[in-house]
Design brief:
The chain is mainly alpha-helical and 71 residues long. 70% of the residues lie in helices and 0% in strands. Helix 1 packs antiparallel against helix 4. The longest helix is centred in the N-terminal third of the chain and has 17 residues. The radius of gyration is 12 Å and the shape is flat. This is Rod shape-determining protein MreD.
């Protein structure tokens, strides 16, 4: 839980300076974790594959956090 809080906060602060349009995005894994919603593994794999060509570390980091909490 502490790792998820720290990484969501860090990604939010990072996105605030680098990609301001993605500021809310890093909070999605935290909301999923707190509401105890499980994401299916095929959805996580699809999100990972789709986020690689975007070349955006905020999107990729958010998807990796979702993969960590769904595993």
């Amino acid at each position: 839980m502490k790792f998820l809080l720290a990484s969501s906060l860090l990604l939010s602060l990072l996105s605030l300076f680098i990609y301001p349009q993605y500021t809310i995005l890093p909070l999605i894994p935290l909301l999923l974790y707190l509401s105890e919603i499980k994401v299916k593994s095929f959805i996580t794999a699809t999100l990972l594959i789709l986020s690689i060509p975007l070349d955006n570390p905020i999107v990729y980091g958010t998807v990796l956090e979702i993969a960590l909490i769904s595993w």
